[in-house]
Structure formats: C-alpha cells, structure tokens
Amino acid sequence: MRNRQIFLKPEEIPRQWYNILADIKINPPLGPDGNPLSPDQLAPVFPMNLIEQEVSTKRWIDIPDEVMDVLSIWHPTPLVRAYNLEKALDTPARIYFKNESVSPPGSHKPNTAVPQAYYNKEFGIKKMTTETGAGQWGSALSFACCQYGLECKVFMVRISFDQKPYRKTMMAAWGGNCVPSPSMSTKAGREALELNPDTPGTLGIAISEAIEAAVADESGQTRYSLGSVLNHVMLHQTIIGLEAKRQLEKVSEYPDVIIGCAGGGSNFAGLAFPFAYDKIHGKNVDIYPVEPAGCPTLTQAPFVYDHGDTAKYTPLLPMYSLGHTFVPPPVHSGGLRYHGMAPTVSQLVDEGVFEARSVTQSKSYAAGVLAARTEGIIPAPESCHALALVVEEAQKAKEEGKEKVILFNWSGHGLLDLGAYEAYFSGNIKDIELSQKDLHGSEKVYEDYPKPQHLKSV
Ligand SMILES: Cc1ncc(COP(=O)(O)O)c(C=O)c1O
C-alpha cells in the first residue's frame, strides 16, 4: 500500500505558533483620529490577552495546554498525497494537501476559534458574538464556545443563511444562536435593511452587527470575535503550515508551489506563513492566494487604508479593499465574499512575496468535482478555488515537463454546501462579469483616508 497520508506523532505536533510580525514590516492600524491605534482602544471589543497577541512581534508564541487539548480532537490533520488527482491530470507534479476538513465543524476555522474562546474565558468573558459567511466560522465558534462553557451569538450573511439552513442547526447542536444578517436587532442591520430590504447581506454588514451586539452589553461580559483578517487569527492558523512542514520533511519533500483560497486570508496564511518565513530568508517558492473572480480583492483592488466592516466600527486597516460598502455578487463561496484582506497577507502581496490569482466559479466547481471523484472528499466551495489553481499548475508542470511539488490547503468539506453543487450540476452556476463600475464603484469611500506606505520587509 502506498503511503498516502502522512501523520505526526503527538510529540511532533508544534507547540508554538509562528508570528510573521517578527519578520515583516507593516503599516499600523489607525484609529478614528487617523493616528496609530493604541491597544486600549480595542478593549471594549476584544479581551486584552488577545489584543496583546494582535500587536506582539515575538516570533514564537506558546500554544496553551488547554488549547492543545481541544485541538488534539482532530490534530494533527493529515497531509495527503493526492495520487488519484495526479493520475487524472497525468501530471509529473507531486500534489499534497493539508486536509483541514476533518475538524468537527468541517474546516480550518476552529484552529483559531478554540484559542479565541479560551483566551476570552481566561479573561472572564461569558458570551461571544461573531459574523459568519459560509457558516463554517459560526459553526467553529459555536463548537469552541461549547468547549469552554461560553454563550455564542452568530450573525450569518442572509444569502448563506438561506442557501444552507443546516449550518444554523449545526450551531444549535453546540449551543450557538444563529440569526440572519442584516437583522433588525442592531442599528447597522436596520440601516442596511432600510437601504435595501432585499439585500443578500455581506460579511461587512454582519461584522458591524456582531461588534455592535458585543459592545452594547453593559455588563462588560461580552466580546466580539473575528474569524479571519486579524493578526492573531493568522497566528493561530499557522499550526497548519507548521504541521505541513514537518510532515513534508518526513517524506523529504519541500514545496515549489503553495496554494490556498483567500477570503479574509486565514487558511491561506495558516499554510503559507511558515513557508513565507523561508522565502523571506532566501528560499525559492511560489506562493499563490486564490480568490473568486466575483470578489477580486487582491487582483483588482488597490492597497489602501479602509474599514473592515460596513458601518465603520473597525479601525482603518492597511489592506487591499474593494471598499467597505462593496456588495459582492451572491457567489456560492460565501466565505470568499469579503471586500478586504488580512493586512499581513496584503503587505506580502504588495511587496511581491505572494502573487494573487483569481478563478471563476465554473472553473472552481469543475476542479472541485474532479477532486471529489478522485480524492473522495467533497470540497467546500471556497476550497474549490484553491483546487482550480492546483489543476492549472499541475497542467503547467506537465507542459513544462517539470516534477514540481504542489502543496495546497483543502480548507473544508462541502457537505453542507450541496445546494451549490446542485446548482452546478443543473447548469445554474453563472460566471459573474463585474463591470468597471461594479468593481470600482465603492472605492470612493476611502478616497480621503490616509494612504499606507509601500514598505519592504525583504
Ligand atoms: C472552508 C473555507 N475555506 C476558506 C474560507 C475563507 O476564509 P479565510 O480566507 O479566512 O480562510 C472560508 C470562510 O468561511 C471557509 O469556510
């Protein structure tokens, strides 16, 4: 039998996260007055122990035993050699994927939900609020809150709420309370509904609602949690790349190409950052974040300062942004419908360490179906975007006759996304052509904001 899955022994699992802020330069987040934000200004929204992680520049940060204990329910996640996909593509490339679909909620998201819930609990918080696009993040935080005895309230982008009703049930199974966003329970939600009663919702609006719900709790025992974008989220996700590196070492491999889909940037960063460290220090590796052509933040938008949410509750973040009022078309990969991008990922795209790519919905589902038929797992629609580029790179390796090693993140399964597959099989997945007006119409929202510097870390 071939050695298809590569595991780690418990004692080989990384016990520290890798913090890329030790190795790169980055523009600071700015407060409402346009000055760099002080950590205290974030205190009503996040617990101080997580704020300290957000701003830390220590290269290695210990994973607490209590967090490791919960992560060990599904970690280490397997690194899989995709022999069948290689064969179907008749490629000389050796393709490996990190299988993050094996977590209880079905994606990489609990890698950060668990430590976030833990640090909130440690700080004395009783309830967490959040947004969710695809539903994977809301499920992950519901699961994590359940592990530590916290309450969890989730604002789910309406289009996804309607597309996948069982996500709400999954959250309820772990004790989470999921409502569609925009809702009437917050000012941000009411304003969005007044503007457009039929809005499909956006992650930007849902983030505003969840922040508002957290800071409105006068007891001070509620905090907000973000499933992507922020530095501490990228930090927690590095367990993916750190494990992958050790697993590849076991079979004496090192990747030539690294691929991950990018919504807010966390599963991509989690896989890529430990290898970006090598690239910053001289190693030759191509690293590609992949986004949908229907919401092409990194490939079409400028690098600016913008808010992370629609109601402008978040600080100004240095990132690629389509504008915080941008309403992405209702593409089926709900987790990739975000106007912005993690500042750390944005920085490394701006300086050319990462090269962003975009793919259409139809190409991504074609790759997803091929992957399901060869490797067995039905990928989440978000993961299908990574797969589309894997197929492209494997075909390129064939044309060039090169034995490349391709590593990608299979960020989640699509077992609650079958409506999207149904639409694909019945020919109802449309490739969205965004006009210049659609694409750039929301950019005026940040016209008068300060501009980030083009810094060079390398
Ligand atoms: C399975 C899956 N992959 C990827 C993403 C995109 O998020 P991020 O870019 O933060 O990894 C999501 C978001 O919901 C997701 O559910």
TrEMBL record:
Keywords: Amino-acid biosynthesis, Aromatic amino acid biosynthesis, Lyase, Pyridoxal phosphate, Tryptophan biosynthesis. Residues 74-409 form the Tryptophan synthase beta chain-like PALP domain. The keyword Lyase applies. Signal peptide: none annotated. PANTHER family: TRYPTOPHAN SYNTHASE, TRYPTOPHAN SYNTHASE-RELATED. Tetramer of two alpha and two beta chains. This is Tryptophan synthase beta chain. It comes from Desulfosalsimonas propionicica.
